[in-house]
Each structure stands twice: as structure tokens, then as C-alpha cells.
Recover the amino acids of this structure.
């Protein structure tokens, strides 16, 4: 997710003349600047705005989880764990996946503990994408996908989700562009990146979607990187449809998940990747040389927590209550709410607002919203390699009730 060079502050822009004089190497990511998350969070702090931009909770995790990690530290679990992760945690994950999705992964050979979902994604890409390979991703897309592909020497093939609009031209939903996906697959396609529940739109893949994807890939050698870090944030009584639950997809997929998202500890940066043994073997070759292994006491603490608490089973109701409260408050504004069947993000179309600023592009609108209204959001256009303007911005509702109440009071002035 990149910004225009004009968005750099003077003190953060690189001194190209000094770089040339020192003989520095060409950038591996020449088009990448500071992420929009960093920019908007800094602007929110500077403006004393309520930060509904960056996707992190402002409430604590379960104290019992903290206690279990502390106990592990005091018990001396502070040295290197096994490269793939401690067997207790990998076993607990295998049991969880089997219970949730009916797929049996072998802890010893098919589950690897990672330093968060993003490291899992990068490692999955690096282990299978070679220079010249093509990787299909659906845009808008999480900002790490394209840089990971480029670092591997691959060619990102961005396919835009189909924006559905009402007669007034407002975006009301997004759909998977199956025909375009089919046309994009060729002999150079190595990998397809999918994400459900989807960041930033909140869209959720159904079983019919996985069936259709499996049919699309059945006579190809295309692998799948399935980003499922919001797997336990699916609402209205619906079940998350994981690639693990689909035999045809599971055999060709890297499944990515995140304890940081599930347990409200995004700063701990711990997740996992489940994949067939052959894929995991290649994954671990790269994993051992980019992080080697992951925080030992946190692994022991989470392994214990998984044995004694079904926190994730209560997560859909927990976040649905926040979603419903936030949507009810936004219904008293002129924002057009898009569906939010999953994640902790709510997208809105702002084009019907009566303020003159409703004519601004998404990035400038978010800056205005932050500095003048006091609520930070993220422009959905920033989730495209080449910003695509649609008049839609993203709010995060993973916040305390008081935070959401205060934000809604400000937004209802629009």
C-alpha cells in the first residue's frame, strides 16, 4: 500500500543525492513509501482524533492469557524453541482445525508457528514464487501481498472485485469477478492470494465460492495462499468457510491464521501456517532463515490457553455486538453502509454527504475527516496497486463501547 511521493514529509524523504554519492544499491521496492496505516495513525495522534483507521483493539486481552504467558516465563521457557514451534502449540492448533473444519493436519510436518500472519504470507510467497511467475490477487488487497510477490521476483496480477452500485452510483457491495479470474490463469500462474473474511471490504467467501475456485484450479498447478486471519469474525449465524474444509483446495493451500487477531494481542505478532507436508517442507526452508522461530513463552502461554478456553468460539457474538452498535449509529448519518458479514471493519460510501468535502478523493477525505471531524478512517483506494477511487472508506470497530460512542457522536454531525 503506497502513497504518492508528495505525501512524504520533508524529514522522512530519502536524500537521493547522498544515496548516489555513497553508491547505495537500487531499491528492491522502489514504488513503496510509508503505509497509509502509519500516516493516518500519526495524523490521528497529532490531531487528537479517535483512531478508527488502523485495525487494532483498544481493549485488553483476557488476563488469564497474560497469566499463562507470565507463568511460562517464570518456568524458564525463555530460550529458543524448535524452529517450527513447540509441539504443544502445534498439536493444539491441529486439534482446533480438526474440530472447526474437519481437516487433519499433522503437527510435526504440516503446521508452523509464525511471527504473525504477515510473516506467514511473505514466507509462503517466497518459498514457491520464482522470478517471472505470476501471482493473482484480488483488489482491494491487504498491503503486504504485492511487496511480497515483488520481493520474490514474481509478477502481481491484480483483479479488482466487482463493485455493485445502486442507481445513485453509490457502492453497495463487492462480488468476486469469476470470469476475470478465469481469464487471468495461464501457464505462468504460480499462486493465487485469497482473503476471507476480507480486509478491507468485510466480504466473506461462501462454500459455493470455494467450490467454484476448486473447479477453476482443478487442472492447474496453481497454489493458494489463503489469508484467514479474521476466521473467527463471521456474523449472523454464518460459518467461516476455510480452505481446510475443502479437500480439493486444502491439498494445494497455505492456510494463514493469527492469534494476534483472535486474542486481541496484535502486538505479540504470532500466528501459524497449516499446509500439506510437501508445501510445509518448502515453507520451513525459508522460515528458518527469515525468523528461524517465534517467541517461546508466548507459544507456551497460547498452547495452554487453547486447552482451557474456547475464547474464539465466543468471538463472533462479541464482535457482532460491536458491529451492530456501530452500524446502528452510522445509520443516523448520510454514509451509505456496505454489508459487513465478517472482519472488524465497516466500509461506507461517503458520496451522499452534504458537506463540500464529499467531493474529495478518498485519501483527502480521510485527512479532512481526521483533522476536522476528529475521526480517522482508511481510504479503500489505498488497497489497490494503482489507487482506484470509489468514494469508500473503512472504519475499524474493534474498539471499546465508549470509543465507538464518541466516534459516532462526531460522525453524526456530518
Amino acid at each position: 500500500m503506497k502513497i504518492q511521493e508528495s505525501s512524504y514529509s520533508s524529514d522522512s524523504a530519502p536524500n537521493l543525492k547522498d544515496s548516489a554519492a555513497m553508491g547505495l544499491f537500487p531499491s528492491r521496492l522502489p514504488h513503496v513509501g510509508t503505509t497509509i496505516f502509519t500516516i493516518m495513525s500519526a495524523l490521528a495522534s497529532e490531531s487528537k482524533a479517535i483512531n478508527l483507521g488502523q485495525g487494532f483493539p483498544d481493549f485488553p486481552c483476557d488476563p488469564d492469557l497474560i497469566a499463562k504467558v507470565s507463568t511460562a516465563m517464570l518456568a524458564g521457557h525463555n530460550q529458543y524453541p524448535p524452529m517450527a514451534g513447540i509441539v504443544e502449540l502445534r498439536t493444539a492448533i491441529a486439534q482446533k482445525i480438526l474440530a472447526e473444519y474437519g481437516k487433519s493436519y499433522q503437527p510435526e510436518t504440516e503446521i508452523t508457528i509464525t511471527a504473525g500472519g504477515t510473516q506467514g504470507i511473505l514466507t509462503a510467497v517466497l518459498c514457491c514464487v520464482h522470478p517471472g511467475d505470476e501471482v493473482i490477487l484480488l483488489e482491494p488487497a491487504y498491503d503486504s501481498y504485492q511487496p511480497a510477490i515483488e520481493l520474490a521476483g514474481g509478477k502481481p496480477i491484480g483483479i479488482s472485485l466487482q463493485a455493485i452500485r445502486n442507481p445513485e452510483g453509490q457502492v453497495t457491495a463487492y462480488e468476486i469477478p469469476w470470469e476475470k479470474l478465469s481469464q487471468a490463469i495461464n501457464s505462468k500462474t504460480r499462486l493465487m492470494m485469497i482473503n476471507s473474511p476480507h480486509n478491507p471490504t468485510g466480504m466473506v467467501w461462501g462454500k459455493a465460492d470455494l467450490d467454484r475456485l476448486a473447479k477453476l484450479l482443478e487442472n492447474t498447478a496453481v497454489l493458494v495462499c489463503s489469508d484467514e486471519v479474521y476466521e473467527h469474525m463471521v456474523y449472523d449465524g454464518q460459518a467461516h468457510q476455510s480452505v481446510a474444509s475443502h479437500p480439493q483446495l486444502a491439498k494445494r493451500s497455505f492456510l494463514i491464521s493469527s492469534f494476534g487477531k483472535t486474542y486481541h494481542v496484535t502486538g505479540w505478532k504470532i500466528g501459524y501456517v497449516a499446509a500439506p507436508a510437501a508445501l510445509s517442507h518448502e515453507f520451513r526452508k525459508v522460515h528458518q532463515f527469515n525468523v528461524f522461530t517465534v517467541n517461546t513463552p508466548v507459544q507456551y502461554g497460547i498452547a495452554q490457553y487453547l486447552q482451557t478456553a474456547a475464547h474464539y468460539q465466543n468471538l463472533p457474538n462479541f464482535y457482532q455486538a460491536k458491529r451492530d452498535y456501530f452500524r446502528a449509529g452510522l445509520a443516523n448519518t448520510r454514509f451509505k453502509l456496505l454489508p459487513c458479514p465478517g472482519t472488524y471493519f465497516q466500509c461506507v460510501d461517503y458520496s451522499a454527504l452534504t458537506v463540500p468535502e464529499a467531493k474529495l478523493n478518498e485519501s483527502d477525505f480521510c485527512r479532512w475527516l481526521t483533522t476536522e471531524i476528529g475521526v480517522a478512517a482508511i481510504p479503500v483506494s489505498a488497497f489497490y496497486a494503482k489507487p482506484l477511487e470509489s468514494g469508500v472508506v473503512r472504519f475499524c470497530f474493534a474498539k471499546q463501547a465508549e470509543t465507538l460512542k464518541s466516534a459516532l457522536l462526531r460522525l453524526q454531525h456530518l
